[in-house]
Amino acid sequence: MLKSFKTEINPTDEQKVKIRKTIGTCRFIYNFYLAHNKELHESGKKFMSSSQFRVWLNNEYLPSHPEYSWIKEAYSKSVTQAVNNGQIAFKRFFDHKSAFPKFKKKGKSDVKMYFVRNNPKDCLCERHRMKIPSLGWVRIKEKGYIPTTKDGYVIKSGHVSIKADRYYVSVLIEIPDKRIASYSSEGIGIDLGLKDFAIVSNGKTYKNINKSAKLRKLEKKLIREQRSLSRKYENIKKGESTQKRNIQKQKLKIQKLHHRIDNIRTDYTIRQSQR
Question: Which residues contact 237 (CB under 8 A, 6 or more apart)?
């Protein structure tokens, strides 16, 4: 049985630099793969798969373009996954399941640092820290949440992501058969609504968290901060260059508010589902 876990980590400054560099490289490689295949298509040449692209990149392109040698500094498995994601996006487009793949933009795209377990010493987890390939041991903020490898749990793969200037790790863990809990076969009916969060067939009613005073207060604050950001952009258009330094700070403030609201809703949903 496989189960996913996600928690916040507290990397060192050096580890933060590595994470950001790897994510930046993955975004560049993903866009490069899309652009290269688009160029091949326009010139009437054959589509290049992810494996063919990696061979071409390592054996032909990088040797003749030493200015891009920094690509090899990133964790290779993460770069490979970025190319594979590009191929999946193209396959969905060819199968008429989605539009043409879009290029990923810095700060607007959800790019992650992928890692995988190649040997038993690659991915380890203790109560307060986790060993991630290319990063080493990284401290976990929520101690004891992720099952430890000493207890027989195996980390198969995972990824590191950044949201609102906070760092998270998501891992896929294989749970031993002896630890799989037996689930009840009894069913239950749930009606999701707007007035109430959910009405269950056993008679329980759960309130809508969006109508709570705490969330309404945060949403009003979010509207004010978004208006403030719009005014800063208007001042730039008018020629006030001093506002440029404050825009990034204001964007981060808005991201943190969005993140906090999202965490409150997610936490409420999880707590209600566990009752």
Answer: none
